Amino acid sequence: MNGTTVVRLVTRDLRFIGFTIGLLATFAVACFSEHETTAAVEGVCSVELGEGLPGSTVVVINRFTFGPPEVRVRAGDRVTWINCDPDPHTSTADGGEWSSPLLATGQGFSQTFSAVGDFPYHCEPHPFMIGRVIVE
C-alpha cells in the first residue's frame, strides 16, 4: 500500500462518516422539531347512541364510500349505516331485502340479518357506491 492509496481510503472513510453524521442529524431534527397537527373536523358526523346503534356493526358513509366496504356478521346481528357525508345517501340491498330512507348527515339506519347469506348493496342516488354484508 502506498501513500496515495492510504489517502484515498481515509478520504472515502471520512466522506462516509460525514454523510452518516449528516443523515443522523437530519433525523434528529425531524424527530424533535415541532410538528403541526391536523385539526379534527368537528361537527361533521355527530350521532347520538340511539336504539339502533349499541350492539351494531357500524358502516360509516363518508366521501362517497361505505367503510368498511364489506362486513361479516352472524345471523341475528344488526348492521347500522351512519351517514357522515354532507350529501344524502341510502343503504339499499341489490336483492331488495332492505332499503333505507334517504339519510341526511348524522342520520343512521339499522338492519337486522336473520338469514345466512351474501348481501351486496348500494346507494340509490349514487350507484357507484357499493358494499357487502356477509352473514355467516
- How does the major sheet shape up? 4 strands, mixed
Order of neighbouring strands in the sheet with most strands: 2-1-4-6
Question: Topology as H/E string?
Answer: HEEEEEEEE
- Cα separation of the termini: 75 Å
Rg is 28 Å
Q: What is the level-2 CATH architecture name of the largest domain?
A: Sandwich
- The DSSP helix count reads 1
* CATH fold descriptor of the largest domain: Immunoglobulin-like
List keywords for this structure.
alpha/beta, 1 helix, 2 domains, 136 residues, 4-stranded mixed beta sheet, single chain, Immunoglobulin-like
Can you give me a brief rundown of this structure?
With 136 residues, the protein is an alpha/beta fold. It is 22% helix and 29% strand.
Give an overview of the whole structure:
The structure is a single chain. The protein is an alpha/beta fold and 136 residues long. The chain has two domains: 1-31; 56-135, Immunoglobulin-like (Sandwich), CATH 2.60.40. It contains one helix and eight strands, in the order αββββββββ. The chain has one helix at residues 3-32; strands spanning 56-62, 65-67, 70-73, 78-83, 92-93, 108-112, 117-122, 130-135. A four-stranded mixed β-sheet has the order 2-1-4-6, with no helix packed on it. It has a four-stranded mixed β-sheet with strand order 3-8-7-5, with no helix packed on it. It is globular and about 80 Å long. The model is unreliable at 22-42 (pLDDT under 50).
